[in-house]
Amino acid sequence: MSKVNGQRLAFVTTNPRKFAEAQEILQDFKLQQVKIEIPEIQGDARTVVEHKVREAAKKVEPPFFVDDTSLEFEAWGGLPGVYINDFMHKVGRENLVKMLAEFENKKATAVALIGYADQKGEISIFEGRIEGEIVEPRGTVEFGWDPIFEPVGYKETFAEMGIAKKAEISHRKKALGELRKVLSA
Length: 185
Known about the structure:
Order of helices and strands: EHEHEEHEEEHHH
Strand content: 25-35%
CATH architecture: Alpha-Beta Complex
Shape: globular
CATH class: Alpha Beta
Number of domains: 1
Largest sheet: 7 strands, mixed
Number of helices: 6
Radius of gyration: 16 Å
Helix content: 25-40%
Structural class: alpha/beta
């Protein structure tokens, strides 16, 4: 793949917070937000991301990338996983924590999958994971489940960290770091 560094790179997302995090992580790239609603299908995370890339490719000229985030509770066998947004909208973060209260195990994994379409339209998928645990909500409530996820080794939730600190360690940072390697090759 050719270098994209210094050229336009589109991030297909309607979420301004995801875009801000990506800008923080990929500061040396000319990132452009493309706001297109892409219907999410049901399935495993990889299938969901591949679908997003293919749907975006119908409307956006490569190179571009999409992002899909999962939150996996160990006690629930990996749920809610890719359905975290549905859980957040239907029951809210406080009730999500309450639903996990009966389980001793509060371990969770935040997963980001980045689906990238290069200039030729070829698709690559990059994954980033960070372990943590589910806690009572703390910090700002600007971004989804950030107030209830405390990464291992930290005494702050993602929401308490703020965008710059979160961008240094997050699941999205890890996935975008893998994308960066390809873009810089």
